[in-house]
Amino acid sequence: MTFVPVMWVVWSAIVVLMVGLHVYRSSLEKDEEDQLFLDDSFEHVRAANAAIVARSTRVEPLVTVSHWLVAAVSVLVIVYYVWDILRQLDVIH
Prior knowledge:
mainly alpha, 2 helices, rod-shaped
């Protein structure tokens, strides 16, 4: 197997992972309350909201790492194609 298909498969897998993490994080945060309840009768809502925030906080570093991985592999793809163009034009040997 040549380098180009492997490169595109790796890039695609990382992008799918990033999109999956975004979908998962948004599904976690859809039930998060934007209001602050100061009454003690809403303690169950406060506890549920704290659990949602805790889970989304655990996912956040993975989302950040996936963004950096997509950026790094995208740069690799661009560098490869620029190098290939320069090699085909005999600019570099």
